[in-house]
Amino acid sequence: MRVQLTRRMILLVYATLIVVPLLVVFFGTFKTTRQLFDAPFGLPPSLTVENYRVILAEHDIGTAFLNSTVVVGLSVPLTLFLASLAAYAVSRIPGWKGWAIFGFLVLGLAVPAQANMIPQYVLFDSLGLLNSRLGLVLINIVVTLPVAVFILTGFMKTLPREIYEAASIDGAGPWRVYRSVVIPLSLPSIAATAIFLFVIHWNDLLYPLLFIQEPDKKTLPLALLDFTGQHLTNYPLLFTGVVVSSVPILVAYLFLQRWFVAGMTAGSVKG
Asked: Cα(235)–Cα(153) distance, rounded to whole angstroms?
């Protein structure tokens, strides 16, 4: 009984630490700066949408939202496609050769992103990819490909080899096996990886800050910096921008949560 009570108390404290800041941010979107500082934990005096109107009409968040949508909409599918091909190949190569290739592909996980910033900037500058959405798409793929390969390989290695043998007996080649057998069976893991990549790409600030200088090419995280200053930060507008930028992540999770839970547990137990 004591153990259960202690566990519930710990969970209650943890939930409070998560929920209270979220409520402060959400209610802050309906307040002015004065109201927010006077009562940060209080309810808004009125449910005015003035802050939402300001960021959409006066700060052109819509353009940044579109830029983020384009960049993420290309980065996630392309990363999943390349990672699934690599994971399929690694899972089919037996012995030490497969593990050696796998180790090489995921070696990027050991290299901090900050360590490559200068050479990446010089390379993209020489290729004319600065201040372009294409440059952000390419760097997103390169940076997150190792972790996507790592996740998908862990699942595909659990698929029984009898499935591959049965497909080969039916006359299916490697591409047909990948498209008609491996991908349908790997959908839970792919969905979980897709949400993981979506969150990373959507919230990425480092590379847009490094590569983007033109206002019309800014992504959402970079555009939110406009509400901060050296001496003054407009917290109600900043909170409003955070809420707006969080909506796609929430929608994606709501639609894919069943696959996400299944994908996070897939491959954890070997048959």
From this structure: 43
